[in-house]
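[job 0412] stage=fold_complex status=start
inputs:
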Amino acid sequence: MREQVVARSDVQQPDRRAFVRILALATGGLAVALAPAPVRAAAEPWRADPESEGEIALGPWVRVTPDNVVTIVVSQAEMGQGISTTLPAILADELGAAWESVRFETAPFAKAYQNPRYGWMFTGNSESSQAFFDLMRRTGATVRVMLTEAAAGRWGVPSGECRAERSSVVHAGSGRRATFGELATAAAQVTPPANPPLKLERELTLVGRSLPRVDVPAKVDGTAVFGIDITVPGMLIAAVRTAPTITGSVRRYDEAAARALPGVRAILPIPQGLAVVADTWWHARKGLAALQLEFAPGPIGEIDSDLIETRYSHILEDGPWATPVLEGDVAARLRSGAHTVTATYTNPFLAHATMEPMNCTAHVTAERCDVWAPTQGQELAVHALAATLQMPEERISVRRSPFLGGGFGRRLLPDFVLQAALISRAVQAPVKVIWDREEDMRRDQYRPASMIRLTAALDRAGRPQALLARVVSPTILRPVAPFMATQITDSRVDPSALEGMLEMSYEFPARRVDFHLFDTPIPTSVLRTTGFGPNTFALESFVDELAHAARQDPVAYRRGLLRTNARGLAVLDRAARLARWGTALPPGSGRGIAYAHAFGSLIAQIAEVSVAGDALRLHRVVSVVDPGRLLDPGIAAASIEGGVIFGLAGTKAEIRFTNGQAREANFDRYLLPYLAEAPELVTEFISGGGPLGGIGEVSPVALPAALANAIYAASARRLRAMPLGRHGLRLADSIGGVRHV
Amino acid sequence: MFELKVNGTVRQVEADDDTPLLWVLREQLGLTGTKFGCGIAACGACTVHVDGQAVRSCSFPVTAAVGRSITTIEGLSAGRAHPVQQAWIAEQVPQCGYCQSGMIMAAAALLKEKPAPSDADIGAAITNLCRCGTYQRVRRAIQRAAAGAAR
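[job 0412] stage=fold_complex status=done
writing structure:
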């Protein structure tokens, strides 16, 4: 996937002309001429200050006030990953801005804020840091040079004798000093340099440090503004109910009963359901109840988890297959191997279950469409709105709420945005639509269930000679990457669903990957870990099985498969050491390892469990991650820690379909891990060099296999399907666990 | 019309009897720090204090709150001074932050009842869901707040 998508970056590099154009506007109309004014929420440090008098834009990313407040625009959605700290810190470091006086602002939709790899504005794929690191540095350096040259011009000294520090430019020889704010007007006239010099690594003071997150204060006192907290004047509130079945539709309802209720303003048909618009959400919700909605289930035959698994099993026998990888004579090697191992792994459907349910505020008139949304996909939302409303894109504004209460890929999709816009247009008023949890879970676009069969031939020494991987999965990528849709549909290969299989760290002399794109009426899309998650569960469980078949230690066996991969060996060895791999544990306890190279980072993760009857306790998880370069150790550690729990959720919860609908519609049945079940977490990083890797998804990628392998070590039970409940296991409290002996 | 004592102030609110306290706080009183997560008291994002007890306000009718003292995240302290908030900042607990108001309110109620909770006490009392998985830091922050109070 990476190659194919990355190829697009050749088409649209970060647009320097746009940068210059905005600079040209800066003296007159400010950057707002290009894009709608960013939303400022009443939350520190996104304080609801009016745009300061005389503020100067130095390109699309930086503005400076006369009293020297530097505002940095954050292109990426803050959904917990700390990006609103990390990216501005990179820019501020190169710029020489005093970090404590920097303000942050969430970006509007504009070309300048597109991911430079794709020319597409979105937040996801663990690549906000990877894709924006160079751009942030270059932008900081560009603005620094402009400010420095303005100062040099003012003082009549060579700019090489001036340097920027703590939001001022200083002339070393004379000791003269001017603030960025004093220099901004002149700096805006300076032509941005084509190749601004970057600072030396040792001159960087923010990059590589654990910074206090800029969003934490607002998140401990309730002032952080999420999409659900957005208020616009004259706003009404809508609650919606669509058919519980995937393909259902409204059969009948009692409109009069709802209309008679206080506060109810409108009852509107929407696709597959109804919206009640009222003065408050509770009134809207009561209106929905009063409707006594009855639904027709629609065609439900194909929407059944048992049936789907049966179909997958048949496809594993009979195909047909697309074969995106064929290296060496796999068939011959499988026939001639001393020993052949084959195993089939099953991953369940999963819901995103962001803690903040889907919601969106919209105001659509005949002239324009204004949307305020907790979205990861501003660009897709703008395109989708333009198509749905038949309105030119320049009349559409999609403003991102300052914070997203989780994203995990769900908020890349524009469905909830379109729904709010249509409801607003119908009632001719601003409307905030808030889904309840049942709507959120039943109208999710799920992480698809997949089935993976792996076959390997081992030689007499237990070394793999060939690997055949067969993956059956619905699409993951198509709904969020319209520019890939035709390719996926035509080739019957979804590169996202094959992540971790197309490219492998392990060396196999011959390798074949077969893929079957499974068509299902169940909507599926990206969920944190995308294809890497399900495929790594299969591959890392299988490598464990190969190690046992070869009567070798699982860490030693992986070392053999990675023998020329110094960075891979380094994370393995460090994790093994931290986890005291090989030391004795009490009976019923065990350790399991998983390794992955995903989203550009390497991880070795070791889980330590005990199994007593049906009770599974996860005591400890050691994660060692090499992201190439570590931008913020504290924020990265938080992401790896949280990722363990997210990965654990994927072994505890599942969405199962029966009678055309998801059985799980709220947290009473969709069982996320609790604090008491959370293990002790040990997290370490290695900066192994190489390209910058992603941090947000690599930890949950590894966890399911590490857990399954630990369960095998503890109990000799091999879990080839998730969730745990299928095997009669339940996650018990982690506390009071294993004593090391 | 109800009279509610919220964060030390008596407020008049107009709401149906069956309105959950959560929606009165958020929509009538503009106290949006308290969050809607599940509507069935399963996730704890809506946790507030009623007479010092942690209560899941999505499933707590406003009528039951009349005459009692309600504290929301906005009223827990001035300037984030509560030891739990301070510990939360020190441990850098929040990620997306959506569950954290409820988490902090649950932790504050726990520490009021048990100033020196064990890990098992914390596990039993903090049943709030966090999708970002901040649990280890939540545990650490509660222990830190408890240690600070003990000094």
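[job 0412] summary: Chain B has a mean pLDDT of 97.
[job 0412] exit 0
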